[in-house]
Amino acid sequence: MEASELNTLPHLPALRRGRPYDSLEKTEIVDHSTGRVVAVVSQVNAGILKKDLQRIDEGRAALRKFSVAELIEISAKAGELFLHGTLPLGDRGHTQSADDYVRTLSGTSGLPHVMVRRNMAKIHYALTHVGTVLNGLTRGLPMEVIDRGYGEQSGAAVSYYPTTQALGLVMPSNSPAVNSLWLPAIALKTPVVIKPGREEPWTPYRLIQAFLAAGAPPEAFGFYPTDHEGAGEVMRLCGRALIFGDANTVAQYRDNPKFSVHGPGFSKILLGEDCVEQWPEYIELMAASIAENGGRSCVNASAVIVPRYGKEIADALAKILGPVTPLRSEDEGAKLSGFANPKMADYIDSAIDDGLKVNGAEDVTARYRNGERKVIFEGGTFLRPTIVLCDSFSHPLANREFLCPYASVVEVPQSEMLRQIGASLVVTAITKDPAFTSQLLDSPLIERLNLGPISTMKISWDQPHEGNMFEFLYKRRSIERA
Amino acid sequence: MTAPTPEAAHEALESHLREIVQWHFNPETGSPFWLNWAAKAGWDPRAEIKTVADLQKFPHFEDEWLRDLQPEVWVPKAFAGRPFNIFETGGTTGMPKQRIGWEDYKVDYSEFSDKISDEHFPRNHYWLMMGPTGPRRLRLAIEHLANVRGSSCYFIDLDPRWVKRLITNKHFDQAKAYMEHVVDQAANILKHRKVSGLFTTPKLLEALAERVNIWDAGIRGVFCGGTTMLPQYTRFIVEEVLENRIGFYPTYGNTLMGLAASVPLTPADQYSITYYAPQPRAILRVVDPENTATTVEYDSWGRVELTTLTREFFMPRFLERDEAIRRKPRGQYAWDGVAEVRPFGAMQKTIVEGVY
């Protein structure tokens, strides 16, 4: 593309304490199917982050001028603006309507419009219910306690202090809804320092613009497209940071209280002995848990564990999911996401094929797919759903999670299930057996437990399924006042 | 200083070239290496090298010669009996490249002194060098530069070979600790001594500025070299580290060439730094990597080729491990410049530069 054309495209500047910064170094964001450049994004070096973070107190001071109640109000307005508004897009006079956002994000991420809208709705809900969310996170703490630093809860004196001057965010590129995780930070008077995913600057940028238009102070927002070194500084210099990554990243940071690490969920559906005979009733629920949102969420089920009928259940799931093919992104029926980075699709496709070479696994979807798992559709790269029947939970494909609709089906005796499944972000246990229910409730390996036929995709904003943002950003101290 | 015309500069260069070739290939004055080389090559450079274009008759200088051969083979007969300095190249591990010399570094840095202002590097004051000293030419060169300006210099060493090894072995914590150790020492000097001029690498400069306010510490001029400085990074150094009030003099150089100074940045440069070789003592060309006989077009990327032409050292057509943009003559420099120098192949692979 000619330089003159690049100069007319939208340019997302870095935001340094809210102020736009036009870097001499820019990256191009391209449409996943056509390769056309749709925007350029300013990149900053780690030194700029270090310089700005020396003055991060100003961001918190700007937020402290507001009460939590006012910030909840601002968040709600921001939610409406995010969902419906036309907001500034960069510093070259472009604007972005809600439909523009859907089209652009879909074009660069590969997510169909319908999924982008669903993600928008989640973010909108989170922003317009910050009060409810904080009530859940704080177990009913009066928000004046945050404003004043101390107060009473249930007749007892309480005091909370912030654990950090800023919340650092090293964001992924694969799921816009994860931005909902940081939204309560603003109402909790904590500035955010965001390193957007390389291919997905859209959502955090639009959210910041929505907050600013709703009256939030610019100093509270840092938007720093940067490299690996810069991401490291975000994590090092912010007292608290959210990180998204693979199992290795999770293992590296899990035990450090400075970080809230979000990685693969390894979410599962467990079918109890008492309900297994009725398995056909749950097939639609299982398929939806596996494939909704293009199979990209950590709350998507990646394994179905059953005491019997593994073969039949795998076949029934494959019959539903196997024929699913890519559709045009604007098609309301689109169920698959394209890959902004086709190499990721190559990696996943070959990882599944490698796993299938180990005895004891069968790609059951293959018989219903009529073609390869990896397909090119209108220039974009897609992975079609894959259900793998494994003969034991120790098979390399039994407990894997991929960025596509993928799940294993494994027969495990009910008495062995909790011993074998390992850590799981969400478990949907379809059982009415009181003894099994009691064992499930006692399990330290399950972050969110759905008892009964509930999709793994269902989340409750007032019950955090992965970390508690209030406890992450505030600590209680004992207090006595004369 | 009045700039020569490109024609005059070219004429002066070719005259110098003929003189240097006569010197190195004359049995009365030349070095054993080049005399033997000419005997084996079967042609007499004194007869055949008359113009810069004729340099193409030489093959590319092989850096292995500087590793494998004993230093005395490079001694021109006219220098016989005079002890020499042995200088080594930067971050190499294993047997380093070595260049011998006597006065060249003084000539280069005396000339460079005329390109830096008294406002930024006050005369009769103190300097600090924080960077690779050890066996490098730079150590003596900086001290000479300070001395030429009536100043003296403090030194803090950084061993780039150790840094390179730490980074290659992924010992990032140790690399960071070593860098802090180096910066600690510099901060200590700045705290207790009056210093106005600083030589360092960009990364060390950034780290030092995180520790102390270098303007308040008395620094008025910074002379930098060592690693890639892309335009955005240069802008960061100028605007945010030096806060637009400390003089900044980026340079490109090494033991084999000497020092290529940069022209002062203008807004039109967009912080893209262009360096000019100390012609006629060295020639920098930006060549097509696939056909090194030809230079690339102006404002295009190519590989850097260096020819060194002094009485102490003759090195024709050495292919540097750098790539750069070829730039037009400018200001006082009536010959081509090299801009945005970075390791050759930097766009294709990750290259360990460390802090050096």
What is this entry, summarized?
Chain A has 482 residues and is an alpha/beta fold. Helices cover 36% and strands 22% of the residues of chain A. In chain A, helix 4 crosses helix 10 (202-213).
Give the CATH H-level superfamily of the largest domain in chain A: Aldehyde Dehydrogenase, Chain A, domain 1
In total, the number of strands of chain A is 24
Largest interface: A-B, 10 and 12 residues
Backbone CA Rg of chain B: 20 Å
CATH level 1 name of the domain at 36-273 in chain B: Alpha Beta
Mean pLDDT of chain A: 93
Helix/strand order of chain B, N-terminal first: HHHHEEHEHEHHEHEHEEEEEEEE
The strand order across the widest sheet of chain B is 4-3-5-6-7-8-9-14-13-12-10-11
Report on the structure:
Chain A is 36% helix and 22% strand. Chain A contains 19 helices and 24 strands. In chain A, the strands form 7 sheets. Chain A has a 7-stranded mixed sheet, with helices on both faces. A 5-stranded parallel sheet of chain A has the order 12-11-10-13-14, with helices on both faces. Chain A has a 3-stranded mixed sheet with strand order 1-5-4. In chain A, α13 crosses α14 (310-321). The mean pLDDT of chain A is 93. Chain B is an alpha/beta fold. Helix content of chain B is 31%, strand content 24%. Chain B is built from 10 helices and 14 strands. A 12-stranded mixed sheet of chain B has the order 4-3-5-6-7-8-9-14-13-12-10-11, with helices on both faces. A two-stranded antiparallel sheet of chain B has the order 1-2. In chain B, a hairpin with a 4-residue loop joins β12 (301-309) and β13 (314-327). Mean pLDDT of chain B is 92; it is low at 349-356. Chain A binds chain B through residues 23-25, 43-45, 47-48, 50-51, and chain B through 206, 210, 230-233, 235-236, 240-241, 270-271.
